[in-house]
Amino acid sequence: MRFLLLCLISWWAVSAAMAASDDAAAPSAEVQLLLKLQGAAHELDYAGIYTYQQGATVTSSRIVHKVDGTGERERVEVLDGAPSEIVRHNENIRRLLPDRKLVVVEDRRGDRFPSLLLGDAEHVVKYYQPIVLNDDERVAGRACRRVFLKPKDPHRYGYMLCVDAKEDLLLKVQTVTANRDVIDQVLFVSLALGEQTADDDVSESWDTTHWEVHEVPLVAVNVQKQGWRIPKPPGFTIMTQVSRPIRAKDQVNHLVLSDGLAAISVFIEPFNARRHAVSSQGGVHKGPMNVFRRRIGDFWLTVLGQVPADTLRDIAEHIEYVPR
C-alpha cells in the first residue's frame, strides 16, 4: 500500500508539473491574437487591392499571395505612377522596373501588409497592450474586429487594427498618435480569399529574359566594433547591420532597430561637402516618418523611423563615435 501510495503521489506530482509547464508555455490571449493575424498573412491564399493613405497622398497596389509546396509566392503590382512590380518567393524578392528594363534582386523579410510583425509577438506585448474593441467594422465588404495596440510608453506610436472576423487576416492598420490621431493607414478595398483566387497569377507580368539584373550586395558589419555608440529606446533591439552601396564608389552602413512593430534606421556614410549641407542638420517630419540628420566628425548620419519625433531626436543626439 505504501508503495502504491508513493506511486500515486509521484504520478500526481509529475502530472501537476507537466500541466504547470504546459500552462507556462501556452501563449497569452494577446500573443495568440498577434500570431493568428501574422499566420493568416503568410498561410492563406488571397488577392485584392489595398491602398496606402498619408495625408492627401493615396497610392494603390494589387496583391496576389499563394502558398504551395515550395512555400510562399507573392506578386505586388503598383497601380500608380511609373509601372513596377515586386515578386516574392519566400525570402527572395525581385523588383521589376519595366521602364528601365531592370530587375533588382535582394533577400529580406516578407513583412509587407497584410503582414504586421517584424519581431517576436511575446516581445511586442511587453511594449504594446492589445485591446479588443467592441465596435466592429467592415472593410472591403468583410466584417472585422477592431484591435488597438496601445503603446505602454511615449517612445512609440499606437496601431489601430481591423482583423477579419473569420480568417484572422489583417484588413486595415492605422498608425496613430497618443491622441489617436491617424498618421497613415493601409487597408484593403477589395479582397478575395481561398478558392476565389484560383485564376490569379503570382508570376511576373513581363518577360525579363533580356533585362539587366542587379543584385544588391549586402555585407554584414558591426558598427559597435567600428566605434559607434548608438542608444536604443526601451524595447528596441538590433535587427540587421549591413553595408550597402549608395553610389558608384560610396558605401553606407545601415543599422535597423525594431521593437517588433516599429523600425528605426540609422545610416552612416562618409561626409561629403558637395552632398551634405551642414545647414540641413536637425529634424524634419515627412509624413509618418521622422528624420534627423547630423554630422559627426568625418561622417554624416541620417536617422529615420516611424516613431515619435522625441524618440528619434533622442537617439540621433546621443549617438557617439569613439574610434578605436
In short:
This protein has 324 residues and is α+β, with helices and mostly antiparallel strands.
List the defining traits of the structure above.
single chain, about 325 residues, alpha+beta, outer membrane lipoprotein receptor (LolB), chain A, Phosphorylase Kinase, domain 1, 2 domains, 13-stranded mixed β-sheet, 7-stranded antiparallel β-sheet, 4 helices, 22 strands, globular
Tell me the β content.
Answer: over 45%
Q: How many DSSP E strands?
A: 22
Instruction: Please give the radius of gyration in angstroms.
Output: 23 Å
Going by CATH, the architecture of the largest domain would be Clam
> How many angstroms separate the termini?
73 Å
CATH superfamily of the largest domain: Lipoprotein localisation LolA/LolB/LppX
Report the biggest beta sheet as strand number plus sense, adding barrel if it closes.
13 strands, mixed
Mean pLDDT: 89
Succession of helices and strands:
HHEEEEEEHEEEEEEEEEEEEEEEHE
Q: What is the CATH domain class of the largest domain?
A: Mainly Beta
Helix share bin = 10-25%
Task: Tell me the number of structural domains.
Answer: 2
How does the helix and strand content classify structurally? Answer: alpha+beta
Would you tell me which CATH topology of the largest domain applies? outer membrane lipoprotein receptor (LolB), chain A
Low-confidence stretches: 1-23
The DSSP helix count reads 4
Q: What's the shape?
A: globular
Q: What multimeric state do the chains show?
A: single chain
